[in-house]
Model the fold of this input.
Amino acid sequence: QVQVVVSGGGLVQAGGLLRLSCQASGGGFSTYVMSWFRQAPGKEREFVATIRQSGLIAYADFVRGRFTISRDNGKNTVYLQMSSLKPEDTAVYYCKAQRGVSDYWGQGTQVTVSS
Done:
C-alpha cells in the first residue's frame, strides 16, 4: 500500500519562499511520476509541476521560473521549492504519486501568502 505524506506548508509574506516535501512509502519510489497540484478556495484543483522517473520536468505556466520541483529517490521524497510567492499562490497543495493507472494522493498542506 502506497502512502503519500505531505509537509512544509505555512504562512509566508509575498515575495517569500517555502519548501514543500512529499514522501511516498510502499516501495518503488523511483518508478513513480510525482506531481504537485493545488486548489484555491472556490476553484478547481490545478496542475503545478511534475517530475518523471527519468527526471523530465514540466511546470504550469504560472509557476515557471518561481517554483522548482526535484526528487530524491534515496529518500522517497519529492520537493517543491517555491520562491517569489504571490498572494494568488495561496491554496492547498497536494502531492500525487502515479504509476501506470494508479494514482496515490497525499493529504493537502495549506500555503497562505500574505500581501
Notes: The chain has a mean pLDDT of 96.
